[in-house]
Specification:
Layout: H1 2-21, H2 25-45, H3 49-71, H4 77-95, H5 98-108
Helix pairs in contact: 2-3, 3-4
Length: 121
């Protein structure tokens, strides 16, 4: 009986680690969403390609972490998500200038419209 239980646990671990290596449909959808969102924001706000690349990583990681927190039955998801939002905010502020961050946050929060930055001559 003990050998069967141990074998069952080992199988779950092995299959779980193999399936974790393949991107899930959710990861693919999140990745595509982040790609489109950051590209659109780049056109509107005008940050660099390097900043865009870093933002894509942060935003994708944030979405995946929030999903994990929401699906965790052992976690206090509200506190975990609040902490993830705080960490995301700090990471965004490290990458974007103050003005860029304010516009980025305002657009995502729906406080301002998505209008490209006008360059004054």
């Amino acid at each position: 009986m003990m050998k069967k239980s141990l074998l069952f646990i080992l199988m779950i671990f092995v299959f779980g680690s193999v399936s974790a290596q393949k991107p899930t449909i959710t990861q693919q959808v999140f990745s595509e969403y982040v790609e489109n969102m950051v590209d659109e924001m780049q056109q509107i706000i005008g940050f660099t390609d390097s900043q865009a690349s870093q933002l894509k990583e942060i935003e994708l990681k944030f979405l995946l972490d929030v999903q994990r927190a929401e699906n965790c039955c052992f976690c206090h998801s509200g506190k975990r998500i609040k902490k993830l939002k705080e960490n995301r905010k700090a990471d965004l502020q490290k990458i974007l200038s103050r003005d860029q961050y304010i516009r980025y946050d305002a657009i995502l929060g729906g406080r301002i419209k998505k209008i490209p930055v006008r360059v004054e001559k």
